[in-house]
Prior knowledge:
The complex is a heterodimer of chains A (372) and B (102).
Chain A: H1 8-11, H2 16-30, E1 37-43, H3 44-52, H4 55-58, E2 63-70, H5 78-88, E3 93-98, H6 111-116, E4 121-124, H7 129-136, E5 141-148, H8 153-165, E6 171-177, H9 181-190, E7 197-200, H10 203-208, H11 214-220, E8 224-226, H12 231-247, E9 252-254, H13 266-275, E10 276-278, E11 281-284, E12 288-291, E13 295-297, H14 306-309, H15 327-331, H16 355-358, H17 363-370
Parallel strand pairs in A: 1-2, 1-7, 3-4, 3-5, 5-6, 7-8, 8-9
Antiparallel strand pairs in A: 10-13, 11-12
Helix pairs in contact in A: 2-12, 3-17, 8-13
Chain B: E1 5-12, E2 17-22, E3 25-30, E4 43-47, E5 50-54, H1 57-76, E6 87-88, E7 91-92
Amino acid sequence: MSNLTLKDLYTKFRDPATIKALAKEIHKLADKLDEPMRVMEICGGHTHTIMKYGIKQLMPENIEFIHGPGCPVCVMPKERIDHAITLAKQPGVILTTLGDMIRVPGSKSSLAKTRADGYDIRPLHSTFDVLNIAKKNPDKKVIFFAIGFETTTPMTAALMKRAFNEGIKNIYYHINHVLTPPPMRAIMDSGEARINAFIAPSHVSVIIGAKSYQFLVDEYNTPVVVAGFEPVDVMESILMLVKQKLQNYPRVENQYKRAATWDGNVLAQQMTEEFMEIRDTFRWRGLGDIPKSALKLKDKYAQFDAEKIYANVLPNEHIDDHKLCICGKILKGLAKPTDCKVFGTACTPSSPLGSCMVSDEGACNAYYRYAR
Amino acid sequence: MCLAIPSKVLKVDENNMAEVDTLGVKRTVSLDLIQEEVKPGDYVLIHVGYAMSKIDEKFALESIEVYKQLAEAAAMEEDAISPEKLVNEDGPLLYKPKAEDE
């Protein structure tokens, strides 16, 4: 008989008394820091938690949050969104993709507008649903426009595996899966954001393991804590980072032991490696080209690779963001959403100019909802 | 996008699918990404239709115990941070299950 209830897994990690107690500890110890702590939370989910629960306001003056690039929708360059729109318009195609992607503006349109024009575009809650759509529509080409960081990548691989095992031949893949460590390295190498502590993502880490951030300690002497998603998790992780600073002993610690391990989900890693390999380079919105920062299908699956099959119709010119949008700077930790001229005026969640406002995980969206 | 939700396993079938409960919402998810055995009563993290890991009860309970002691110790002290700080625009930071937790 277990002592843990499902409700505990929610309420205990959002408990106001615990948040308050942790805030007190942080204030006590942060007094002793000899330099301000500029902590980057990479993951958009953490940004959301920090804004929603007012964690920013609970911090002493010498602890500042820098919001990172961990929002897969925000970092997707417009030309890739144009790919999705182009694919949806091909004869006999059903285009499927996960939720948020539907509203993101490409160069001229969005998937939502394209869908309103009568094309068959289906937003999914579950990657697994692609199988059912393909089975129900055997005469159609079902294209899965795959987005997301390492959290979401293994599900695409698992879908492929099942499709092959069940002999389903009408699913094609357009892979836009991106990796977490390369942009962290890029941000550290640019030296612009002056980050001296990291809160590492919860669920990316469940897949890739806490070991994936050791390079930040070895090469940049920067403390890292893998943190859970809830406000108590984030508070405890901040406390752990402050303690590392005071001990002057940077290392990778895991606050999210209930779900993340040092090695990660090895089966998920293997499944991903079975179908995908690293791209030479990928252009990130706001960050530019980052070498070896994304995945593609292996050549042996070329007959299912929508990027290859439709290569002659897919546009490939680079498209820049709206002139007034500073999303790129925000993703690099060089600006806050409130520094933007159009924040909350010309750019809102219902009519976003830039990608940081579109997604729930975008920093601008979180500021708009919780901090105006 | 990377939000994964704690859920409780109710049933596991021969097709490697599990019926899970997420605070009252029932759904069916795939276990294709889980290496170890999953049985009814286990807690798992759910993401886009798949269980992505089991939740380690021992570690969860350990954390909860630490927080309990921390909160009790803080309550004993007098110089608490003012309660206003624990309120944002949505009101007090109390847990209310909402649709957006899905």
